[in-house]
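FAQ

Q: What does a record look like?
A: Structure on top, sequence underneath. For example:
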């Protein structure tokens, strides 16, 4: 197995899927308000994806039961939307969405604030977002894959936060998950050399406390072992003419 190199036409098609992904995520963000249920957010996502003539990529994936993941507070990733889960002031919710459009995939996530949160939580979100941005800047010809991993880890540990080890970013394009795996920690200068035409979903999952996680009995919901908060930001990025291009932009 190898890392697929996408041509310009294919990258444009992945970008079409990513544009829908980003637009739906942005719209969902506007709906993150006190009192809404995560189930309602999922319903809105399904409607918007359908209206874009696209397919929710997560729904049915390995049996996953929804179109989006809604990961509240100590939930790291893969929180399942639920009728009885109502967002409250002071919550954070990571929304992760994957879309298939004409045989190509887009994947993106953002962590949103409900009302107001304390400064520590604000910092966690800010630092996770910055880590994603720094990781994206490493997606250029000649770098090694783990240069991405390394900048993400170095940035977050400076602030006392820890990257999750158990889940990673990934290649994407004709499949939602392709090679390579992209850890959010590790030494630089390892792994395959990055080349024009590669497409990556980079997704730092960063914990306020320990990096350790647990998966709940539903088989999906992943929580921090210490039940402290976790943040998640993700973009789909292509290497175009040697440098990174974020595809999940509206
Ligand atoms: N963005 C995540 C990922 O890459 C979400 C997958 S959720 C699932 O893998 F439901 F589809 F598994
Ligand atoms: Co992903």
């Amino acid at each position: 197995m190898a890392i697929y190199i996408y041509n310009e036409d294919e990258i444009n098609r992945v970008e079409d899927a990513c544009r829908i992904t980003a637009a739906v995520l942005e719209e969902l963000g506007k709906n993150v308000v006190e009192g809404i249920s995560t189930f309602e957010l999922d319903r809105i996502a399904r409607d918007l994806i359908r209206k874009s003539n696209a397919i929710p990529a997560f729904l049915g994936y390995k049996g996953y039961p929804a179109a989006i993941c809604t990961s509240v507070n100590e939930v790291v990733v893969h929180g399942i939307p639920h009728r009885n889960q109502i967002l409250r002031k002071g919550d954070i919710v990571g929304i992760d969405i994957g879309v298939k459009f004409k045989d190509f995939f887009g994947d993106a996530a953002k962590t949103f604030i409900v009302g107001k949160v304390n400064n520590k939580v604000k910092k966690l979100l800010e630092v996770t977002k910055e880590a994603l941005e720094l990781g994206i800047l490493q997606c250029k010809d000649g770098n090694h894959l783990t240069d991405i991993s390394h900048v993400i880890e170095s940035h977050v540990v400076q602030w006392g936060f820890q990257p999750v080890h158990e889940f990673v970013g990934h290649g994407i394009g004709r499949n939602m998950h392709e090679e390579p795996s992209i850890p959010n920690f590790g030494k630089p200068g390892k792994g395959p050399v990055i080349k024009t035409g590669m497409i990556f979903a980079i997704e730092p999952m960063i914990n306020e406390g320990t990096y350790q996680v647990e998966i709940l009995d539903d088989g999906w919901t992943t929580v921090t072992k210490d039940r402290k908060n976790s943040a998640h930001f993700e973009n789909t990025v292509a290497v175009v003419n040697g440098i990174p291009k974020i595809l999940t932009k509206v």
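Q: Is there anything notable about this one?
A: Residues 107, 170, 201, 203, 234 surround cobalt (II) ion (ligand 2) (CB under 6 Å).
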